[in-house]
């Protein structure tokens, strides 16, 4: 028995008899560790790298129904891929979806995830890729605005009648005619009962697998997943012969095996851990980032993958603290990246090589121009700094001279005040003589006072007190 349902090699439905729903015990579903659908990260090079390291199945990035409708299917022999392309507004082709042509490499292991809110559009879009993929999965779990504002993604959890109608249409018009399984990816609801009610409705449509992201729609990736519901959900799915996969903070294949054993689910889906290092799917320890980056660039160059996405994925694969990562961020082509990392440069064709070399020449010219500007700015800064230093030195000298002048004036003033406060010898001599004369006069007066005897009043009846002039006059007049 094959590991996954058969895939037709043409873009028309197979005429063979179509089986009913694949039982969840099918080896293509049991004990699997798969790559989660991730916008930008989940492009073909990442999927091929994950498969190389032991991933069992890979989900492509979500493609909206209207995005794939109207695209042209092209077989790219040089890259060995099947490309679904649309003509852009600028006349350049826009790659909508790409898968590897070789069944053994990816085609029978790649699940196309569609973003939709309309059964008719879902069928129309899925039919275009059905012959080139291993299954179609409906995104009913993405909480991002670009999904929910159109009623897609997690918004479908609030409209189960629309979601089940989409699944039934896909099963009837795509799954059975093309002999591929139809599945759905959801998030848990606010409580177990409402979650089980939704899962029961989904299982009744005939889907082959329900993948449960163990977070509610409002929960952020940094919040711990809620796995308490898993066992009950898995039991319910199995009662309908439907496989149940778990998603949310699954770190490695070993961790996936633990979750499968503990909760009874059939498989696990890895997202963030695989984005940082796809070798987490290995049964051994994750490989060093240098090896992973080398292998990623090998796949990227082999299919002529567009550089902006290559650079985005490399920035996730190279640890942020590494100096190489900072340099890769500034690279303008795969050629530049290979030169930075010291890895072989093997472009898919001469056209890509020409574009890469032109990009590098432009980048080098731009870097040289920036270097000149930087040097000019540095010279100007140095000149300004030197000018400021001269001004500062000049001001210091002026302040020093001013302070010296002030000190001299202060010293002179102090000397003058001291001089005025201390009389010269001549002045001191005159003052001394004055003091001496003053003291001499006072001494003579004191001596005169001491030698003068007091007058004694005469005695007798006719005696007159000579010390009293008035009485003397009166006495003379009386005589």
From TrEMBL:
Keywords: Flavoprotein, FMN, mRNA processing, Oxidoreductase, tRNA processing. Its cofactor is FMN. Residues 1-17 have a biased composition (Polar residues). InterPro entries: Aldolase_TIM, DUS-like_FMN-bd, tRNA-DUS-like, tRNA_hU_synthase_CS. It catalyses: a 5,6-dihydrouridine in mRNA + NADP(+) = a uridine in mRNA + NADPH + H(+); a 5,6-dihydrouridine in mRNA + NAD(+) = a uridine in mRNA + NADH + H(+). CDD domains: DUS_like_FMN (cd02801). Residues 1-24, 353-479 are annotated as: Disordered. It holds the Pfam family Dus. Residues 372-381, 398-427, 438-456 have a biased composition (Basic and acidic residues). GO terms for cellular component: cytoplasm. It comes from the Eukaryota. One of its GO terms (molecular function) is tRNA dihydrouridine synthase activity. SUPFAM superfamilies: FMN-linked oxidoreductases. The keyword Oxidoreductase applies. Catalyzes the synthesis of dihydrouridine, a modified base found in the D-loop of most tRNAs. Specifically modifies U47 in cytoplasmic tRNAs. Catalyzes the synthesis of dihydrouridine in some mRNAs, thereby affecting their translation. PANTHER family: TRNA-DIHYDROURIDINE(20) SYNTHASE [NAD(P)+]-LIKE. This is FMN-linked oxidoreductase.
